[in-house]
Amino acid sequence: MSRSSSSALSHGPRGCTNLKLRQLSRAVTRHYDAYVAQTGLKNTQYSLLSHVVLLGPIKPSALAARMRLDASTLTRNLQPLITLGWLEQGPGADARSRLVSATPAGRAKRAEGQRAWKQAQLALNERLGVEQVIALHALLDDCLARLDALAEEEA
């Protein structure tokens, strides 16, 4: 353990966790944007398109839950992809439900985006070190699980 790590453990965390996570998130987003933007997609669009390709046809409410988005954010993010012809909304199991699915053009755009995303991931792994990225993923997964469990207890 480094001296700064042992010092942090004895004195507690310094600074705002939310701020640090947002700073990291913005830096990582800029990194991925530099690669994914070459395909004409934004990171948010690539993520949404990927979720629909992998999970669809899917109800918007289920998609929002899987992506950890609120319904209004999902609706706002779906609209441009529907307009571009990459996603479509069709009827669901009953008259009140809808299903979101990827069109053939959407599947092709997702494949293009996936190639760019893969290059971004490999470059990030190289920049940070694979061990660091693995440790970061494990820490993030653990934190999300703990926060989800807490939210379930409070509900």
From TrEMBL:
Signal peptide: none annotated. InterPro entries: HTH_MarR-typ, MarR/SlyA-like, WH-like_DNA-bd_sf, WH_DNA-bd_sf. Gene3D superfamilies: Winged helix-like DNA-binding domain superfamily/Winged helix DNA-binding domain (1.10.10.10). Residues 34-133 form the HTH marR-type domain. This is Winged helix-turn-helix transcriptional regulator. It comes from Pseudaquabacterium terrae.
